[in-house]
Amino acid sequence: MSLGEPNSSIDTSAFTGDYKQYIDWLAQDLKISHKAVRKNKIEIKEENKKQYDQRNAVVSLTYAVGDQVFYMIVGSAHTQTRY
Prior knowledge:
2 strands, about 10% strand
């Protein structure tokens, strides 16, 4: 995950007085910032999932739709099968 240069997207030029231009610039800068934050959040989420799966030995399911499965209801005196 790249953090980039500090303050790399900040335009430090003085305000010229054209409000429309300023609003357009601000909207564009917010869109860029939002995209960057979203991308970083996705990268962090994927990395966290990878680490979680490694720590907890997550195994992919081996059954598919239509397969017969056996399940138990915890706390019940009965065991049920579903076909």
